[in-house]
Amino acid sequence: MRIFIFCCVFVFQLAQNIAAQSVLRANQLYDELFVHANELTDNVENVHKYYEYALLCSENEGAWDALKEPEVCFYGLEMSIRLRYQKGIDDFLGVLKQCYYQNEIFPEIENVTYPESVSRKTLRLLQQRRKVLHGGTVDWYERAYLIYMNQHMFREAGIVSFWNALAFYDLENFSQAHHLFAQAKRCFRVVNDDRYLMKTSLFEGCTYYFEKQYSNAINELNTAASLCVKNKDTIAYPSVLNNRGETYLAMNEPVLALNDFSEALRFLVLLQDTNRAISLRIKLAHAHYLLERYQICIETLQQAIESANRSANKHHKVNALYLLACSQSKAGNAADANISFQQFILLRDSLFTAEVDSLANEREYFWINKLGRQITNQAFIDHERNKYFVELRKSKLIVFGVVILALLLAVVGIVLYRSGKNKKRANDYLSQLDKTRNLFFSIIAHDLRGPLIATDYLLKPAISLAEQKGETELFSSLKEIETQNIRRKLLLDNLLSWAALQRGSMKCNLQPVSIKPLVEKVVSFCHFAAKQTDASVIIDQMPDVTLSADPDMMQLILRNLIDNSLKHGGRGVEIQINGVSEGPNLRITFADNGKGMSKEAVDAFNSKSTPDDTGSSRLGLSLIRYFVAEQNGQIVLQSNKDGFSISCTIPLYVNN
Q1: What is the DSSP letter of 71?
Q2: Which of 402, 630, 644, 653 has CA 20 to 30 A from 605's CA?
Q3: How far apart are CA 185 and CA 161, in angstroms?
Q4: How far apart are CA 290 and CA 134, in angstroms?
Q5: Which of 3-7, 139-143, 350-354 has the lowest mean pLDDT?
Q6: Could you give the CA distance from residue 515 to residue 543 in angstroms, rounded to a whole number?
Q7: pTM (predicted TM-score)
Q8: Is the Cβ–Cβ distance between 282 and 301 less than 8 Å?
Q9: Mean pLDDT over residues 411-432, rounded?
């Protein structure tokens, strides 16, 4: 164990030393190339120093001025041109690619078969999660293109123009991407570079696809396919066929799409590319489904699901399960369709929850870590500058004593000013980060309400039809889905209320509220959910009095209390609701004979600990406590082996 710890410490220190050496090397090159630029001469060694310095700048974030950014590699190119140093000119393209992390990954058009719960545009406002980006920059490639054109290096000019187009393609600025793709094609045609002509046609075809100009997309993808056949490029050819097949599906031409998907699948099987082969099988099944070949569609999807299980690819599996359920329903296999649809719902919800959690964590950690790197780098810069000034003062202490003293005071003032400024910037940024997090949850809660309400409207006629036809199993499953939908809407209401509380936009609007009709309304709303678990909700006693309360808050309190007992009380739980007037207040008690809560959780709640202090999120209970307090009431929670009870007091309305 000690040896292992020693090795870990050694590796960590070694990594720190390497990072420190790269920063020191970058500072050394900065002094040679820019601080003492008047002493610099044009030679081959300085060309490579510029390139090395540009690569070091791209590896270390948080530069404080333009001379510590990767664009300084252009100084090396310009010096190579002045020296007519061909190797330096040729090496520049590779340096540029490394500086901006440029790649040329082939595009793959992917469409899911099922309607998603949240619009991808909403998530893309915060982070492009499912999109393959190609690196690059929209700012500096134009300069490289002009230099190469002046040198009549058309292939290199075409490559940087193609990279520039990819940057606009990733930003979905398709008009500018078209212009740059056409510019790159002209250069590649001059040098007859079929390989890059194929890539340009492939990306431009995808660009037309996203603009819904499907005829132009087919023309470009046909050109790319011809060039693949001509060059015998078996790596790019499946991507071309896949994208052309998706375009044919968008044009409602499933027969042509079926041919492309079949040929692409044959190549992927030969290449042993399992994940892409699963995707192509699902697309084949989709084409068969559009052609009403439901049995072939079912067989193809079952093969895809088996392959997805072996490779643990849940995203392909959820895509296949939805299409399988639809195909089985069309083929008349209602029982199998019901099973497939339930599996799809469970897997889709788990994947979506994991994706949102991962997105929130990555976004928060990314910005915090980036801010930390910038502050650390700025502190290192300040330290190096102070060290330089200290050495200067030592060497000229006798001659410039008075001047050095004034300079020392100025430097100390600058350091203190920058320290305070950085601290204020960090506090402002963390405050903005907290606001962004609350806004993020609010956006998600709002965007999820629409699909859930739409699902309710779709389920109601389906439930009625199943009940009329006497399909009890399907009727029960659809009612269960409706119950889960209701609970999700309650969870979204809680999430939306929590986000509003965090932003301070939710205010308590006290007004006269008749409590008895409100309780009866909430109980009738939860009747079917209770029936599903053999539970019962009984209004034992409830006086017909008027409270001074907020009706929306009271409804959320009642819904959360009943749902909490149904969810955690177990099957057959009995929930009793009592109301008793106590002086100027009404005490409402919810009691059940369920499992109850642990003594630690009850004590923590009654002591007004935060949800995190109790060891469980319990968002509903936290909102209940806040809403009761906002209405000038009190809440007490009790739990024992006989069940669980919670009582709250709300002031009665007094007509002044």
Answers
A1: G
A2: 653
A3: 9
A4: 34
A5: 3-7
A6: 8
A7: 0.53
A8: yes
A9: 76
User: Both tokens of residue 110?
Assistant: 């992917």
Sign of CA pseudo-dihedral 416, 417, 420, 423: negative
CA distances from 444 to 69, 111, 437, 449, 622 (A): 37, 22, 11, 9, 20
* CA 334 to chain centroid: 36
- Secondary structure element (H or E) that encloses residue 644, with its range: strand 643-651
> What is the C-alpha to C-alpha distance for residues 269 and 284, in angstroms, rounded to an integer?
14
Query: Is 224 in contact with 189 (CB distance < 8 Å)?
Result: no
Assign 73 to helix, strand or coil. helix
Query: What pLDDT digit, counting tens, does each position of 188-206 carry?
Result: 999 999 999 999 999 999 9
User: DSSP alpha helices (H): ranges in 596-650?
Assistant: 599-606, 619-630
Instruction: List the beta strands (DSSP E) in 492-607.
Output: 511-514, 536-541, 546-549, 574-582, 585-592
Which pLDDT belongs to residue 458?
64
Spatial neighbors of 169 by CB under 8 A, at least 6 apart, are 134, 177, 203, 206, 207
Domain borders along the chain are: 357-499, 507-651
DSSP 100-155: TT---PPP-----SS--SS-HHHHHTT---S-------SSSHHHHHHHHHHTT-HH
What CA–CA distances, in Å, run from 433 to 24, 377, 398, 421, 612?
33, 21, 51, 18, 20
Interior/surface letters 571-593, b for 16+ CB within 10 angstroms, e for the rest: eebbbbbbbeeeeebbbbbbbbb
Three-state SS for 344-366 is HHHHHHHHHHHHHHHHHHHHHHH
Q: What architecture does CATH give domain 507-651?
A: 2-Layer Sandwich (3.30)
| Token representation of residue 168 | 């606009």
State phi, psi for 92 to the nearest 5 degrees.
Answer: -60, -40
Predicted confidence (pLDDT) per residue in 611-622, tens digit: 443 334 456 777
Give residue 280's identity as a one-letter amino acid code.
L
What whole-number distance in Å separates Cα of residue 333 and Cα of residue 328?
Answer: 5
- pLDDT tens per residue, range 65-108: 556 677 888 888 899 999 989 998 889 988 888 888 888 888 88
Interatomic CA distance for residues 446 and 39, integer angstroms: 63
- What span, in angstroms and rounded, lies between the C-alpha atoms of 331 and 301? 14
Over residues 533-550, the pLDDT tens digits come to: 778 888 888 888 888 888
State the Cα–Cα distance between residues 598 and 638, nearest whole angstrom.
Answer: 10
Maximum Cα–Cα distance across the chain? 105
